[in-house]
Amino acid sequence: MFQISIGGRIKAFKEVDPAVEYAFERLRTCYKTLDELISEIWTWEKAKRDYNQLLRVNGKALIGNKTIKQVTTGVLFPNYFMTHRYSVKIGKISSAEKYLDDDLLKKALKRGMTKLKANKVNEGVVLRVIYLTHGTQSAGNFMPAVAKGIYETFCPDGGKIFDPSCGFGGRITGCLSAQKNFQYFGTDPARETFEGLSRLIESLGAENRAFIQCCPFEDVDDDFIAESDLIFTSPPYFSKEKYSDEETQSWKRYPEYKDWRDGFLALSIEKAYRGLKRNRYFIWNVNDVNIGKDKFPLVKDSIEISQKVGFKYLEMKKMLMAKIPGHYKIKYEPVLIFKKG
Prior knowledge:
Layout: E1 2-6, E2 9-13, H1 16-30, H2 34-41, H3 44-55, E3 67-68, H4 76-80, H5 95-100, H6 102-114, E4 120-121, H7 123-132, H8 144-154, E5 160-163, H9 170-177, E6 183-187, H10 191-203, E7 210-213, H11 222-225, E8 228-233, H12 250-253, H13 257-275, E9 276-285, E10 289-291, E11 294-296, H14 298-309, E12 312-320, E13 332-340
Parallel strand pairs: 1-4, 3-12, 5-6, 5-8, 6-7, 8-9
Antiparallel strand pairs: 1-2, 9-13, 10-11, 12-13
């Protein structure tokens, strides 16, 4: 039995094929684009409630001796401002493009109802089956509760935090929820992401605590980074995730890995070293990536470059990742921790 509840109408089916057809027709009638569907799911009321729950999370408790636990509390809040992240390509097609393709959408619905056992289908389930099926993967957001814990563990109260790759707002949300009077500075080259971050900051009335620039980190003036108490980010994984087609994107500037390593990765780490105060931490969440038949050693290169510029490599913590149904299970992502002497 399959129950379809989309656009305020509910109907039950015994067989999967008519259930798929009905769900498809309701989606096409009610939501012309994936953005319209997401707006129905992620309301401001839900986002604000999620942020208020994040305020009560003990982020520091998530940071263990060797591992970092993940909780999703708070991630709906930045996601509310970042619906465009479903347009990011990881592979051949984005989730937004899949939604507009009739055949792929029907296949995703059918796979969700059969392989993923989704016998009750609403708007939220539709969003999940779109990005969990047929090779589509949506760009992730850093968990705000984890960011909150990292800040509270490694940054002194009232300290200046710098984020070289702001991304979709998970880390800035964690910073502003920490209530430790941190100041957040950061850069991101994607215009649409920058605008979403600006709306996020404004919604919290945090214009006096959060300062961001829309530019590549390797281009930012050193004065903007200077005297940082903690530098922490998750940089682009080379060209694995194509956040936009703007020429300021690192994968566009440096399409070959060697050039990207030397022109983006190395230069970013060098700037971080110059901007960080002594006896403070530099934290780098990065992972090796496979693109086609090639594997790129981002972890090894990050460690070697960081040590070369003067950082002391302390340890790697394993940030535990949730299992995604139907996908290869990534057990953890490395969080590399360095210190400037």
